[in-house]
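User: Please fill in residues for this 170-position structure.
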């Protein structure tokens, strides 16, 4: 049975805000204040979203939580969490990178410092299988980013390229 891969929140918000805080003087030299205000606000977005799902912290490899397949996105970022979700569900995954929600400010902060925003922790975000799982987990705002696949491969489509996730992604 094919299931939808859903993501709550937006990738790398907290990581980008923390990278900015660690390098504020450098960013002030290269970016306008209006942009920097939006970057500083990313931390507030994270605080509003919370780092918990439905009042309970989801462990990294949550597996089935109350019948749901769920994995929080922490160390190793989205790529590692997708691997963990496939492991927990015992299935392959096909994800469209263009569907992964990420704010432009997070992209620019990461690119400026040579970081991969998808490999950075995205604390507070969760991958779930099936939109009903997202709603049941108290996460009504989610984005469908892919589907489970019959094969064991866990892939991410990036334009016309395919990236194969593996344990080293973890």
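Assistant: Residues filled in for all 170 positions:
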């Amino acid at each position: 049975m094919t299931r939808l891969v859903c993501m709550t929140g937006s990738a790398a918000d907290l990581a980008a805000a923390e990278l900015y805080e660690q390098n504020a003087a450098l960013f002030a030299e290269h970016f306008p204040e209006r942009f920097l205000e939006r970057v500083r606000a990313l931390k507030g977005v994270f605080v509003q979203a919370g780092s918990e799902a439905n009042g309970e912290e989801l462990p990294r490899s949550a597996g089935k939580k109350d019948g749901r397949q769920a994995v929080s996105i922490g160390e190793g970022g989205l790529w590692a969490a997708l691997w963990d979700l496939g492991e927990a569900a015992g299935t392959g995954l096909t994800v469209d990178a263009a569907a992964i929600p990420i704010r432009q400010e997070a992209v620019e902060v990461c690119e400026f410092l040579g970081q991969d925003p998808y490999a950075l922790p995205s604390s507070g975000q969760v991958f779930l299988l099936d939109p009903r799982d997202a709603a049941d987990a108290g996460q009504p705002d989610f984005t469908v980013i892919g589907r489970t696949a019959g094969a064991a491969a866990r892939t991410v489509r990036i334009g016309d390229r395919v990236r194969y996730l593996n344990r080293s992604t973890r």
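For context: The chain has one domain: 4-169.
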